[in-house]
Predict the structure.
Amino acid sequence: MSGVEYLSPGSVAEAVRALQVDGARVMAGGTDLLVQMRIGRTKPKLVVDLKRIPGIAGIREEDGAFIIGAAASGAALGEHEALRKAWPGIVEAANLIGSTQIQGRASLGGNLCNASPAADSVPALIAAGATCVIVGPNGEREVPVEAIQVGPGKTTLANGEVLLAFRLPKRAAHTGDAYLRLIPRTEMDIAVVGAGVCVTLDASGKCIAARVSVGAVAPTALLVEAAGAALVGSSLDDAALTNLEAAVAAAARPISDKRGTAEYRTKVAAVLARRAALIARDRAQKDGAKA
Amino acid sequence: MSRTVVNAVVNGEPVEFLAGGGQSLLDALRDELRLTGSKEGCGTGDCGACSVIVDGRLVCACLMLAPEAEGKRIETIEGLADNGHLHPLQHQFLEHAALQCGFCTPGLLMASKALLDRNPDPTETEVRYWLAGNICRCTGYDKVVRAVMDAAADLRQEGKSK
Ligand SMILES: Cc1cc2nc3c(=O)[nH]c(=O)nc-3n(C[C@H](O)[C@H](O)[C@H](O)COP(=O)(O)OP(=O)(O)OC[C@H]3O[C@@H](n4cnc5c(N)ncnc54)[C@H](O)[C@@H]3O)c2cc1C
Ligand code: FES
Ligand code: FES
């Protein structure tokens, strides 16, 4: 990895300017980028390390809505009590990434922008309805998480654009989220399938809003609107969950590889989505405090 | 290739070294600072042999760039023993024969130290999950886990008698 320049700008403007250089690449935790440089898949001329930009590695609450800095590490998310309480699904998804060592560095921004179809935090962020605050040479814009990935390694970020933060919606009362993934072992593997679900119930326990997202069953994480719709109006009874499973299976278009066949992945995606929905519901029921 | 001056604190000592932009912290520790205790097993974050503690966080030194170390506090295996007095973890690794070739050992010790620094009384399950990113090809993990549990007990005892 010789011949690479390193820069750690102290402001967003400086970072955006630095990224105008041909061959410049953003780095957050580097757990994807440095591996790719190491194996020669990418050869940047300049690495722009975001972590000295004030706030970019932090987590804050504004008006009851969380803003997670794009470069905040998985470990920092896991240690944030209030975030863990409000969005357990996002935090459990982030904390599944790699080992303790990887957790010390890996960020949600890197997980999304690396654009792996199996990125663990992405279905959880999509289910939660998170948006991305992006800044570039033409100013700032905000788009839903599901608008970022277009295929393996490809995003809708323009040259020179930086993802600054994830903005989570202000959480409605009786809301719960959950993320589940299947891997052949307990740690250190890539998802065969991942599923994130977020549900909101009314006072009687009826579902009034639901979002379902699955990973590793298509070139990008998928927002399965029909699966969310299958839950709305129900008490997440068996009939509604069967409809959710059918919607997920219909949306999945996985490949077969050493981790599993397309048929297996499709089946597992439906099962995981059902189980995640039930965990999200239980959490929503317990979430009586906030009105 | 341009090199930048990096100032950091390594094992409590201020150090200054020259780093290449694409050089890993692991290479800088080994080649510039001659601290060869941290090992490179894979270079891609999978094995944990390069584990060091940076500002209190366990990381893979192979997946951090050397210039990122500017202003940071870094702990490596060379700083674990106190003036030739072995750390309880090192002592228990010897007691349990928790190593064979020893290549994974510096990483396992630093990872275990990071655990005990924040959780002095971990369960066996917590130890096993915490160390999942440290791969050993010879010894297996059982002796390692028992050594960490016993070292944790030693440290708690030490804390009480102080
Ligand atoms: C041993 C190991 C195990 C792993 N296990 C898992 C796992 O279980 N699940 C999983 O999902 N992933 C896993 N990963 C992959 C990786 O750790 C994650 O994708 C991680 O979240 C990446 O974050 P990062 O901050 O390190 O990204 P970086 O490597 O810094 O960046 C990744 C990519 O995103 C771009 N980028 C980063 N931040 C921004 C930003 N703010 N704006 C614009 N572009 C940006 C970079 O240019 C680069 O292309 C693993 C990696 C390793 C080495
Ligand atoms: S050498 Fe760093 S994790 Fe293997
Ligand atoms: S003792 Fe040889 S790798 Fe662990």
